[in-house]
Design brief:
α5 packs parallel to α6, α7 runs parallel beside α8 and α8 runs parallel beside α9. 40% of the residues lie in helices and 13% in strands.
């Protein structure tokens, strides 16, 4: 599939966002794009991204990370079987949008040998630039389990991004495999030299920020929960502007809402630049260069 022609971009002011020229200045990178991959043959994945791309371009998002299933039990059984039989569908988005899409493989810590094989195939010898550990009911182990250790070590050896889904709720975990920010802080303490991204700031972001505050190697990702005043301000104050990365959570979340968290926050311009692109760009530049991939589209 060839990369689509750039679509016409409507004025972002219509959505309550800054004008195009201002958005262009931020060189926005998106750390969290979750296209659907539940159909057996994988066609929905490309269609989701193709439909999402105009929205990304409307707000000048230059690069985006997508989390791709590789047949490790992280998706529906029919999809798992399809990607095992047709591995060419796994990296199809990266070939379709080579200057924009950045791939992270979804790993399953219950299958350590399979996950290590996938890391070697898709990161060491392939186009992926990191790993995503999901948090749905198919995942049976929280991220502080020892099974994560060899997987984290291998991804880090390759210089890859490590994104961990986290969710904290007042009533406790919805299933044993849910990882909280506190679980990630514990994992981070075992690997103080390795950087981690805490997806969704744990949902209950005040708890999440406090849980990782002392873990200087853990950053937070901004998407996936309802916007409330004070989130970005607290994160910047407690963690510093260099430990926050923007995520859109498209196509299942509102792009205006997720960007509004950052543009509506009372923070410095330097912090806004950091959160919207500079932090993720600095994080990923070494592995992109090692693979001969562009750092800018």
């Amino acid at each position: 599939m060839t990369s689509p022609q750039p679509p016409r971009r409507p004025h972002p002011e219509r959505f309550g966002l800054p004008p195009q020229a201002e958005l262009d200045r931020y060189r926005i990178w998106d750390s969290y794009l979750t296209p659907t991959m539940v159909d057996p043959d994988g066609t929905r994945l490309l269609r989701d991204i193709n439909e999402t791309l105009p929205r990304l371009m409307t707000v000048s998002i230059r690069r985006f990370c997508i989390f791709l299933h590789v047949g490790l039990g992280t998706a529906e059984p029919a999809t798992e079987q399809w990607v095992r039989e047709h591995p060419e569908t796994i990296d199809a988005p990266l070939k379709a949008w080579p200057e924009r899409a950045l791939g992270l493989i979804q790993l399953n810590a219950s299958d350590v040998p399979g996950s290590l094989d996938a890391i070697n195939r898709w990161i060491a010898d392939g186009p992926m630039i990191g790993a995503y550990f999901p948090g749905d009911s198919r995942n049976q182990l929280p991220c502080n389990h020892v099974n994560y250790d060899p997987l984290i070590t291998r991804v880090a050896d390759l210089g890859g991004l490590i994104m961990q889904h986290t969710w904290a709720t007042t009533g406790g975990k919805s299933h044993p495999g849910v990882s909280t920010p506190a679980d990630l802080a514990e994992l981070g303490s075992r690997f103080p030299e390795i950087r981690f991204a805490c997806a969704h700031a744990g949902g209950e972001w005040e708890t999440g920020i406090r849980s990782i505050r002392a873990s200087e190697n853990v950053s937070i990702e901004t998407s996936g929960f309802d916007p409330t005043a004070g989130f970005i301000e607290m994160a910047t104050r407690e963690l510093g502007e260099c430990r926050i990365v923007f995520g859109s959570h498209l196509p299942s979340r509102s792009l205006g809402t997720e960007l509004g968290k950052v543009f509506g926050a009372r923070i410095s311009e330097s912090a806004r630049f950091r959160i919207l692109g500079e932090n993720l760009r600095e994080w990923l530049t070494p592995i992109l260069r090692s693979k001969g991939l562009a750092t800018e589209p």
